[in-house]
Amino acid sequence: MTSHPHSFSRYCMHCGQRLTTAIPENDTKRRLVCFDCGFVHYINPRPVAGLIPVREDGQLLLVRRAIEPRAGTWVFPGGYMDLGETAEEAAARETLEEANLEVSGLSLLGVYTRPGPGVVVIVYEALALSEGSPGEECSEVRWFHPGGIPWDELAFDSTIAALHDWAKRHGLDAPYRVPTVEERDF
To answer: Quick check: helix, strand or coil at residue 48?
Structure first.
């Protein structure tokens, strides 16, 4: 299981004093708390925006990851949202960064949670405006016919679930079963 990057914080972001764990008043969970200034440091999931680019001929684009985690596997473009941008803007930005591909007409496909690494993945579908090429975090981009999705080589359970939902949305068979919560590899 991957840890949230702030789960090992030792010092208060407000006053710089040492943090401890405690159950704050009117709460039910242990939290990181600063006893000097009283600030409670909540460790919340981080939003990720992803996008399934689709050409007019119905093929969809996937990128092969060149970075960990899961280097060498396939995924649709996506990444962490930046402060000050919408989920739609983040999805389009990540697609441009990872696949050198501009898109239009974003449509929400679904929201997928990955509790282990603490992320909420917001996935869109959009029309591809060009062919694309690998960005810095990707070793390859490839267009796949819906029947040719490399189900056994996909990066994350959220990738599988979103592509499964995408196939269902378009009335296509999704031959790969979405893992249950107990089977998921977080």
So the answer is: strand
What CATH code is assigned to 46-178?
A: 3.90.79.10
CA distance 178 to 159: 10
What is 1-43's CATH topology? Ubiquitin Ligase Nedd4; Chain: W; (2.20.70)
Q: What is the helix (H) or strand (E) element at residue 33, kind and residue range?
A: strand 31-34
pTM, full prediction: 0.84
**42 within 8 A of 115, measured Cβ to Cβ:** no
Q: Which amino acid is present at 73? A: T
Q: Which residues of the chain are in CATH 2.20.70.10 domains?
A: 1-43
pLDDT tens per residue, range 32-57: 999 999 999 988 899 999 999 999 99
55-89 residue pLDDT tens: 999 999 999 999 999 999 999 999 999 999 999 99
